[in-house]
Amino acid sequence: MRPSLLRLSLLLATLFQEVALAQPAATPDAGPASRSADPAKALVGIWGGEGTYGPEVRGGLTLVRDPGGWRASIGGFTVPGVLEKQTLTFTLPGGQGDFRGSLSPDGKRILGHWIQPRIQVGGVRYATPVELRPLQKDVWRGSVTPLEDRFTLYLVVQEMPDGAIHAFVRNPEKNLGRQGAFRVSLKDDAVQLVEVRSGGMRFTGTYDASAEKLSLNVLFLGTLDLTRRERDQAVGLYPRTPAEPVYTYRKPIADGDGWATASLADVAMDEAPIRALVQGILDTTPGPTPTPLIEGLLIARHGKLVVEEYFHGQDSERPHDLRSASKTFAPMLVGAAIDQGAKLRPESPVYPLLPGGTALAAQDPRKARITVEHLMTMTSGLACDDNDDSSPGNENTLQEQPSDWYTYTLNLPMAREPGADAAVYCSAGMHLLGAVLHQTTGTWLPELFERTVAAPLQMRRHHINLSPDGDAYLGGGLYLRPRDALKLGQLYLSGGIWNGRRVISRRWVERSTARHAEMSPGRTYGYAWWRHELKVGGRVYAEYEAGGNGGQYVMVVPELDLAVAFTGANYSQFALWKRFREELLPRYILAAARP
Predict the structure, then answer these.
(1) Domain 3-53+150-233 sits in CATH 2.40.128.290
(2) Which terminus, N or C, of the chain has the lesser number of Cβ atoms within 10 Å?
């Protein structure tokens, strides 16, 4: 996961509360007669608002080569390009974006990445692949589609049986409010929402009755205007819009991204349990009681995509934040680099591989014994524990550093001996694999990911979040289309082959998914793969998965030749999203798969 996103939710909660505390307290309950005249009744209904904060520069990108050099044109800007050591770059004024790419040897394509400005909702930069093709001699054109910086808020105001006016909040991007219940008050045009639970969040704003507009203060995001919505206008609030009272199974559509598709019957899966699962998702009613918020469900068996369903406004082409599920790509990159000849092995000591690392290792002799495998299995022994706020290597603390997260991690003190069987969840260590990969391959990580993962897996669109130093952050936060995320599971299930092409070695797959450490009782860990045993009736199935905050899962059940992907929005609600694996997977999906 990206704790910076979690910090955003916590920061919003704190800031909302600080603003609200300066406002008059909500009027105490004065009984039924008072409630009947409660002015807050005017707010009853569904309210929705969307804030889009850019990036403004997008669309057609044209690169021209002439005797005077390179020129780039996009979004009304025309700037010179610089070609150095086969890498072509340009930067727009005002920090509006950067490009980094190279011309293919045959001159037919320019492959690169667009680096967008830091987003407001999350605070990081993203790199997005761009391919430009020739229009004519020395002219290439492509399209830039950056990650949209958006924030959506639904507010549902209801009159309770006792006449009190309550509301709940739904925020798909960050789960702000976590579906909690709020008391609503309206005095003149001032609105206040106070969460029912003690010490909860508070929102303040204004209501313009003539314009039917509710404006809430979202501080550094500014004022977010909400308007009334009908049921069929609240796309992200309900599981499906318009409502689908009775679910009908449909075979997924093949769309040229490498997935063969089939029906459930074609792969010996019973339709009834799958229909029951999807119907249960569709029947979920939004309300103040926290419920599983599943946004995507995909199932592949025998190498074919057989279920593809989206909910809460999601669709097949919209990349989803995988949070920590994208950690699993870091060891995959290591395996691919080894396969392609990098001077690297799982047993390679980490510190000697990095500039100045040998001197840093002298701080503690145990550091010299940290290997690449220790980073991949979270057994480095560094004082790095994401579940301990006081740990100096906690991901929140790491991301508060203004630059050079690699050196910060290398300088962490040791807390235990490297290689201990008990793993400690450490995003900083997984990110440190990026320094190892950059140093041993000499490649910018987004380019390495594109060449060794995205291109061979026929990924259509993705966005890689960057650290302050401009390289990819491997601790989580990659945006992928759900169909492309599921390819990770299918690749490992197939022994390293995707669509007939070997992407990583079978040996690396076997080593990656083997037991290397215990993360907690009943949960063992491979190379960024979680390992479990699931019971279905009288049978026990081995399962391994990539998992991320909110309910981002790529699950593999080898015995059933099955790969499953969930995407979700239960951020910071582990008790809810772990149910995707513990209940939904065995009860419906595994039960549907005939051996």
Answers:
(1) yes
(2) C
